[in-house]
Amino acid sequence: MIRVVLPVHLRTLAHLDGEVILDVEGPITQRSVLNAIEARYPMLRGTMRDHVTQKRRAFVRFFACGEDLSNEPPDTLLPEGVATGVEPFLVVGAIAGG
């Protein structure tokens, strides 16, 4: 069981209330978690990563166990706390401005 916390605008788009609980097959990586989210909630495809390149969108960040994992390769294993469901995988909408 993997716990995922999405930003409010993505929860609204997917008609979700609260965190997402997923069963993810195989190694627990950013790619496998995002694939599972997009498979269950197709309306989220393209919101967190580009449709073609599968690269993270510029204003989306990924965090787990207090670490920013946004620039890690997508097939890097997520921390044990996330893999066991103790800690959530956080998808955060970044804010920019001047």
Compile the SSE list and pairings:
Layout: E1 2-5, H1 8-13, E2 20-22, H2 30-40, E3 60-64, E4 67-68, H3 80-83, E5 89-93
Parallel strand pairs: 1-5
Antiparallel strand pairs: 1-2, 3-4, 3-5
Describe it for me?
This protein is an alpha+beta fold. It has 3 helices and 5 strands; from the N terminus they run E-H-E-H-E-E-H-E. It has helices at 8-13, 30-40, 80-83; strands at 2-5, 20-22, 60-64, 67-68, 89-93. Strand 3 (60-64) and strand 4 form a beta hairpin. The chain is globular.
Distance between the termini: 40 Å
H/E element string? EHEHEEHE
Q: What is the total number of structural domains?
A: 1
Trace the largest sheet across and list its strands: 2-1-5-3-4
Helix % is 10-25%
CATH topology: Ubiquitin-like (UB roll)
How can the largest sheet be summarized? 5 strands, mixed
Low-pLDDT stretches:
none
Task: Tell how many strands the DSSP assignment holds.
Answer: 5
Brief characterization of the structure:
This protein has 98 residues and is an alpha+beta fold. It is built from 3 helices and 5 strands, in the order βαβαββαβ.
Structural descriptors:
globular; Ubiquitin-like (UB roll); five-stranded mixed β-sheet; 3 helices; alpha+beta; 98 residues
